[in-house]
């Protein structure tokens, strides 16, 4: 394996395991689910929350946060860590 191929694999692993991708993905998925639940809330659920469609607002907030994390990861990708120095 050449140094260039090894460097590409290292960069790919750094991007794949970037914590911003995991957090952003989870918040986005949960945000979509909670938003849909908020859209389908009945009058009883809205009355319990004193007239506030809390599931809808929290779902939209989670969705926005998740998309923010994913945009951050896309705009500023993780840098490839330097390989350890070999002592020979």
Report what the structure shows.
The chain is rod-shaped, with a radius of gyration of 21 Å. The model has no long low-confidence stretch (mean pLDDT 87). By secondary structure, it is an all-alpha fold. 72% of the residues lie in helices and 0% in strands. The protein has a domain of 57 residues. Helix 2 runs antiparallel to helix 4. The protein contains 4 helices and no strands. Keywords: Membrane, Transmembrane, Transmembrane helix. It comes from Catenuloplanes nepalensis. This is DUF202 domain-containing protein.
Taking all Cα atoms into account, the compactness measure Rg is: 21 Å
Task: Kindly report how far apart the N and C termini lie.
Answer: 20 Å
Which regions contain 5 or more consecutive residues with pLDDT less than 50? none
Structural class: mainly alpha
* Largest β-sheet summary: none
Strand content: under 5%
Order of helices and strands: HHHH
Q: Work out the helix count.
A: 4
Q: Write down the overall mean pLDDT.
A: 87
Number of strands: 0
What's the overall geometry? rod-shaped
Amount of helix: over 70%
Write the layout of secondary structure elements.
Layout: H1 3-16, H2 19-39, H3 43-48, H4 54-75
Helix pairs in contact: 2-4
